[in-house]
Automatic annotation (TrEMBL):
Protein role: E3 ubiquitin-protein ligase which accepts ubiquitin from E2 ubiquitin-conjugating enzymes ube2l3 and ube2l6 in the form of a thioester and then directly transfers the ubiquitin to targeted substrates.
Transmembrane segments annotated in the record for this chain: 251-277
Main location class: membrane
Any one GO CC term of the record: organelle membrane
Domain RING-type span(s) in chain numbering: 16-237, 20-66
GO MF term list: ubiquitin protein ligase activity; zinc ion binding
Pathway(s) annotated for this protein in UniProt: Protein modification; protein ubiquitination
Protein name: RBR-type E3 ubiquitin transferase
GO biological process: one example: protein ubiquitination
Source species of the chain: Denticeps clupeoides
Reactions accelerated catalytically: [E2 ubiquitin-conjugating enzyme]-S-ubiquitinyl-L-cysteine + [acceptor protein]-L-lysine = [E2 ubiquitin-conjugating enzyme]-L-cysteine + [acceptor protein]-N(6)-ubiquitinyl-L-lysine
SUPFAM superfamilies for this protein: RING/U-box
Broad EC category: transferase
Family annotation (InterPro entries): E3_UB_ligase_RBR, IBR_dom, TRIAD_supradom, Znf_RING, Znf_RING/FYVE/PHD, Znf_RING_CS
Length: 293
């Protein structure tokens, strides 16, 4: 791993060191990389590791500047990313970009067949409505809305099958129990989500919707994770009882802290209210006074 190089102060004027916002080390300019769009500067090693992590995890298709306070909210261009990562990672990045484009395009959709990777075209005038789509590769006829076999005259099912396949996946990749299927769709935005390990509380990276992996029930308002105390998902969170209790203690502590702060501040707010109202009345009266002649 590259280490920061420190030199006497009298030598800095000849070859100044630049600070990296990620690792807080100081490096010569030739070891730094400037993002073209926002002109933020980071050491090449840190920026490379940041880009590789996002591509491997599939977190972003548009890789943003690592500086959360970046004034221009810059993004790395494709040629900048290509110079940092290996060929295999670059191919994965382009694949993620393409899948994202198809997902957001109302006139395109993936063929739901487990052995087909084709992108099917929808009729533009009827794109938001359920319509029959025939794959040009495998000739499968399916519904554009629910991805099930075409069902003329019948409404789509309320929920999509949780054993839906990603492009290129085969049915052998899935277990017989649908609750343990490693790939499901977000119940809100229908984006594919893969779960390798971890707890059953999931958050969609696309729409930020929190839900239970097993029953797909919403957890957006379940801050204490009461969902896993009863019902079919009881004790299936994936954490020990002690960690769940600690989580609940932290959440309760946060709300209690805000409540205590409000309780302490309320007398001062009550005392300040008359003065605020008085000042407001004086200001309004002053505005109504006629201009001096």
């Amino acid at each position: 791993m590259t280490t920061a190089r420190y030199r006497p102060t009298w030598d800095l004027a000849l070859d100044p060191l630049v600070s990296c916002k990620l690792c807080l080390g100081e490096f010569p300019l030739e070891q730094m990389t400037t993002i073209t769009q926002c002109q933020c500067v980071f050491c090449t090693l840190c920026l490379k590791q940041y880009v590789e992590l996002l591509i491997k995890e599939g977190l972003e298709t548009a890789i943003s500047c690592p500086d959360s306070a970046c004034p221009k909210h810059g993004h790395l261009q494709e040629n900048e990313i290509e110079c940092m990562v290996a060929t295999e990672l670059m191919q994965r990045y382009r694949k993620l970009q393409f899948e994202r484009e198809v997902l957001l395009d109302p006139c395109r959709t993936w063929c739901p067949s487990s052995s087909c990777q084709a992108v099917c075209q929808l009729k533009e005038m009827d794109a938001p409505l359920p319509q029959m789509v025939q794959c040009s590769v495998c000739t499968l006829e399916f519904c554009s809305a629910c991805k099930a076999n075409w069902h003329p005259g019948q409404a789509c099912q309320e929920t999509l099958p949780i054993t839906s396949f990603l492009p290129g996946e085969t049915s052998s990749f899935y277990k017989s129990d649908e609750d343990d299927a490693p790939i499901k769709r977000c119940p809100k935005c229908k984006v594919y989500i893969e779960r390798d390990e971890g707890c059953a509380q999931m958050m969609c990276k696309n729409c930020k919707h929190a839900f239970c992996w097993y029953c797909l029930e919403s957890l957006d308002d379940d801050f204490l994770l009461i969902h896993y105390d009863k019902g079919p998902c009881r004790n299936k969170l994936g954490h020990s009882r002690a960690s769940v209790i600690w989580h609940r203690t932290q959440v309760v502590g946060i709300f209690a802290g805000f409540g205590l702060l409000l309780l302490v501040a309320s007398p001062f707010l009550l005392l300040a209210t008359p003065f605020v109202l008085c000042c407001k009345c004086k200001c309004s009266k002053g505005d109504d006074d006629p201009l001096p002649t």
